[in-house]
Amino acid sequence: MTDHEPERAPASAPETIAAALRTEILALRWPPGTPLREIALKEKYGVSRRSVREALRILAVQGLATVRFNAGASVRELTAADIHELYGIRRVLESAGAENCADASDEEIAKVDDALRTLAQSANTIPDSEDYAQHDMEFHASVIGLLGNKRLLAVFDDVRVGMVYAIRLLHHDEASSALRAQQQLAEHAAIAERILARDPVGAMASVRRHIEVNEARLILLMES
Fold first, then answer.
1. Is the pTM of this model over 0.85?
2. What is the maximal distance between C-alpha atoms in the chain?
3. Angstrom distance (rounded) from CA 94 to CA 98
4. Kind and range of the H or E run holding 117
């Protein structure tokens, strides 16, 4: 830490537990609908039930858990309505970013290219992984970043964990298909190509096509 970097406060017990549970959920070690029992978690992590409750609330806000009054908590089961909501937010933000590619800075354009390269490395190793899903979302964040608006990126951050979870479920369901992983990468490359060419119309079309196809695939998975 340098003299100019503020000292970070240590993570609280609820934050630490939430982070551990988030890792388990995104690794798909617990299927959707798995109960998250307060007493069992209290004993596992050696903390109070209050800390466990706070951790579960954090996960609920991030879209990974469902907490019902007097009914306990469980790993989130995504519905078609959830998918419509998540992809609706992405459609608005990413379309706006793509539309602004002609006016975006060279630095922001380069971030899209860098994000694609990182995603390609993940796609060629283990596409059925949290890392791949995180890199996928980082690519889409770079598209939104073309707007140069940190507050809009913060809006995207509010749904990012939920989107990583949705992508994990989808990729895991299709893990046996290496071809699908390459098709996904090709869709991202098509978006990046139009953005690097500073072609707003082509970039917006590529973004919307990618979102529509994957939204439909996820809804089909949720309803199957």
1. yes
2. 56
3. 6
4. helix 106-123
Cα 104 from Cα 71, distance rounded (Å): 49
Which candidate, 182, 193, 111, 190, places its Cα nearest to that of 146? 111
Number of H helices, E strands in the chain: 9, 3
The answer to whether residues 192 and 92 touch, using CB atoms and an 8 Å cutoff, is no
For the range 76-81, what are the long-range contacts, defined as Cβ-Cβ under 8 Å and sequence gap of 24 or more?
Answer: 76/32, 76/165, 77/32, 77/33, 78/32, 78/165, 78/166, 78/169, 78/218, 78/222, 79/222, 80/219, 80/222, 80/223
- Token pair for 101: 């590619």
Q: How far apart are CA 51 and CA 210, in angstroms?
A: 40
Q: How far is CA 22 from the centre of its chain?
A: 12
Across 54-70, b (16+ Cβ under 10 Å) vs e yields bbbebbbebbbbbbeee
According to DSSP, the residues that pair with 65 across neighbouring strands are 75
pLDDT digits (tens, 9 = 90+) for 93-102: 999 999 999 9
Which pairs count as long-range contacts for 213-220, CB under 8 Å and 24+ apart, including other chains?
213/187, 214/87, 214/170, 215/83, 215/84, 215/87, 217/170, 218/78, 218/83, 218/87, 218/166, 218/169, 218/170, 219/80, 219/83, 219/84
- 154-163: per-residue pLDDT in tens? 999 999 999 9
